[in-house]
Each structure stands twice: as structure tokens, then as C-alpha cells.
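New to this. Help decode both lines:
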Amino acid sequence: MILIDTNVLVYATMPGFPEHEQTRDLLAGIVAGRVHHCLTWINIFEYLRIVTHRRLVRPAPLALEKALENIRGLSAQPRISRIDPGAQHLEIFAQICREAYPVGGNFVHDCRIAAVMRENGVDRILTRDTSFRRIPGITVLDPVV
């Protein structure tokens, strides 16, 4: 199983990004393919925040209803599932923070995503975010390389 990171979802949705066509085609291939992929609630809500934000998306953000429709559509695909934090989430997060020290700012969210991944036995992430390379046990798959 491979986690789809927020930036891949954003690039695939918004035509203003140079990565748009490649990530859009990649996401279509994932939906039609055989490899199981997953999302976390963290990625879902990051996606909703970004694609509806006037200052982050040019020329125009999506309406919240359209963004929700996109997430619902993707989540309904048979090869896409959601993974969730478990009972030991905070401790696993703390361990990852020790392993990837120093941790602060936006990297906190990346470590939290990595904790959900570790709890669910997922060790690969489809992302353009190079900070995930700092987390032991995570293999970063860049969709645009």
C-alpha cells in the first residue's frame, strides 16, 4: 500500500501547477490500477484547506462543495482506502520525532502522517515533499521524477 500525500492531490486537481498534468494522469492510473493506495484524515483536510484558499491557489480556489466532491469521489474508489491513527499514535509520533530530530513547524504534520503510516504498516508515500526523506523507514516516491 502507498500513501498519497496532499501535494499530489492538490497538483492533480489544480491546473495552475506545473505538475498538474503528470499528477492528474498518475491519479487516474492509480484509480484504474491494481496497487492499493491510501489517504489519512490529515491529507484530506490539508487538501480541503489548500484548494479552497484564495491566497494559495491561482487563478481561483475551488468551492468547498467541489473539493468535498473530489475527495468523496477518490475515497469511493476500490483501490483507495483511509488509514487512521491508533491507540499508540502519540507515542509512535514522539518516536518518529526523536528519529527525525529536529522537528518543528510544518514538519510536525509530516511526522504525524508518518506515524499513521507506521501504525498501519505503510512505508511508501507518493509525494513531492522531500522532508519525508528525513523519516527513517519511509520510502519517498516522487510522482514527477
